[in-house]
């Protein structure tokens, strides 16, 4: 039986991977797909 | 002093990113990127849900999805005017999508009789895209001159492709949904669109909960 903490780690990691993929995808676009635009990540701002 | 806007994608994304880092400390350096990606996903899902809620009762769900996708595809590359707050953006976008869908379906005969006028406006819109796109906001420093020209080229190509999709479908309700979406999105590239959004930002009060934090 998988421990709860391991499950949490797996689930949160999956969310992180999906989020990072979304971030990569959004980088080729000039802006968000509707009127709202979130603040750029700190790393992108420095660049 | 930290400003928190409850229930906004930004707040949820920040809290979620912190939880992710808590269980995956090796991702600490990428926390803000995770937050950004999450915010992107959450705001998109929210928009989709609102469109579903608004359009299904009025029988314009299919038209609503077409309007959403058309506007999104063009806006991703052409950019456009922005509103400052998340909920006013969500509200305006939803009203826009619903209105386009509703008018295209329930005033179809009226629009069909004036299709030449629509063709004229589409021609003007294409010219606007050629001259104005891309309109960048927070990403204005993220693209080089060459990349901006590429975005302009892609915007023009997307506009023409979507226009042609409408032509292929003939003078159907879906065609008018696509064309109206193109017209409205192009409006946000103009000075008029920018001033209109600034006016909306001015008249809607800013309600942010402010707390003292780290």
From TrEMBL, chain A:
InterPro entries: AgrD. NCBIfam families: quorum_AgrD. This is Cyclic lactone autoinducer peptide.
Automatic annotation (TrEMBL), chain B:
It holds the Pfam family AgrB. It comes from the Bacteria. GO terms for cellular component: membrane. The chain crosses the membrane at residues 48-74, 86-104, 110-131, 151-170, 176-197. Coiled coil: none annotated. Keywords: Cell membrane, Hydrolase, Membrane, Protease, Quorum sensing, Transmembrane, Transmembrane helix. GO terms for molecular function: peptidase activity. GO terms for biological process: proteolysis; quorum sensing. The keyword 4Fe-4S does not apply. InterPro entries: AgrB. This is AgrB-like protein. The lineage of its organism: Bacteria, Bacillati, Bacillota, Bacilli, Bacillales.
């Amino acid at each position: 039986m998988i421990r709860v903490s391991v499950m949490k780690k797996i689930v949160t990691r999956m969310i992180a991977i999906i989020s990072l993929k979304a971030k990569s995808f959004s980088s080729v676009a000039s802006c968000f797909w509707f009127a709202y635009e979130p603040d750029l990540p700190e790393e992108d701002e420095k660049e | 002093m930290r400003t928190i806007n409850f229930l906004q994608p930004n707040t949820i994304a920040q809290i979620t990113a912190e939880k992710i880092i808590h269980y995956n400390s090796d991702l600490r350096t990428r926390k803000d990127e995770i937050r950004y990606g999450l915010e992107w996903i959450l705001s998109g899902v929210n928009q989709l849900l609102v469109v579903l809620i608004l359009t299904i009762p009025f029988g314009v769900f299919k038209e609503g999805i077409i309007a959403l996708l058309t506007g999104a595809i063009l806006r991703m590359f052409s950019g456009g005017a922005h509103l400052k707050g998340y909920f006013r953006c969500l509200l305006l976008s939803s009203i826009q999508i619903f209105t386009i869908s509703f008018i295209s379906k329930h005033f179809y005969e009226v629009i069909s009789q004036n299709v030449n006028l629509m063709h004229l406006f589409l021609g003007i819109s294409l010219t606007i895209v050629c001259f104005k796109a891309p309109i960048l906001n927070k990403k204005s420093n993220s693209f080089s001159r060459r990349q901006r020209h590429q975005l302009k080229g892609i915007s023009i190509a997307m506009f023409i492709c979507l226009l042609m999709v409408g032509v292929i479908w003939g003078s159907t309700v879906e065609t008018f949904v696509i064309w109206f979406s193109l017209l409205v999105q192009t409006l946000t590239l103009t000075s008029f669109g920018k001033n209109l959004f600034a006016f909306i930002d001015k008249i809607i009060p800013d309600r942010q909960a402010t707390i003292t934090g780290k």
